[in-house]
Design brief:
By secondary structure, the chain is α+β, with helices and mostly antiparallel strands. The chain folds into 2 domains: 44 residues, no CATH class; 104 residues, no CATH class. The protein is 51% helix and 14% strand. The chain contains 4 helices and 5 strands; from the N terminus they run E-E-E-E-E-H-H-H-H. The protein has a 3-stranded antiparallel β-sheet, with no helix packed on it. A two-stranded antiparallel sheet has the order 1-4. The protein is globular, with a radius of gyration of 20 Å. The N and C termini lie far apart (67 Å). The mean pLDDT is 91.
């Protein structure tokens, strides 16, 4: 089944590991007529952006999807990061189960989409922790001072 892709000006897409960038001054359209590993720019995570446990999981999974010739290497990294994340954030288990199910079904792209939910879940947790810290510091002014103050 063919997939028509519309790529906005300066947009990027990865197809089978190759980064394509639209350098024209307008949106372009093209058709992919066979199976290919495709990631649109909104789904691409750069290595330097993988700074949290969930984004590292996503990046390893992204590499599994885009670089099948190095799948075993990326799968080992993914498994380690994924298990570590799952143990640290048990509230993400339902999402983790969806990632696992997609991988077991051989659908790496669906696993990536579910892994985006891991990142969102992690963000909610981090925002909650941040809010609690701010609240505690506002109620206890001494909590923000060091012993040398």
């Amino acid at each position: 089944m063919a997939l028509v892709i519309h790529l906005k000006r300066n947009g990027q897409i990865i197809i089978n590991g190759a980064v394509l960038e639209n350098l024209s001054g307008r949106t372009i359209s093209f058709c992919v007529k066979n199976d290919a590993a495709i990631l649109r720019d909104r789904d691409i995570l750069k290595a330097e952006e993988a700074t949290t446990p969930a984004t590292r999981v996503y990046f390893a999974l992204q590499c599994m999807y885009l670089f099948p010739h190095r799948r075993n290497e990326h799968a080992a990294q993914f498994a380690e990061l994924f298990e570590s994340f799952r143990q640290a954030v048990p509230s993400a288990d339902p999402i983790a189960a969806e990632v696992r199910a997609a991988l077991a079904a051989g659908n790496d792209y669906a696993a990536l989409k579910h892994a985006q939910s891991l990142i969102q879940h992690e963000g909610k947790i981090l925002r909650h922790v941040h809010d609690r810290l701010v609240e505690n510091l506002q109620h206890d002014p001494a909590a923000g001072k060091s012993a040398s103050d």
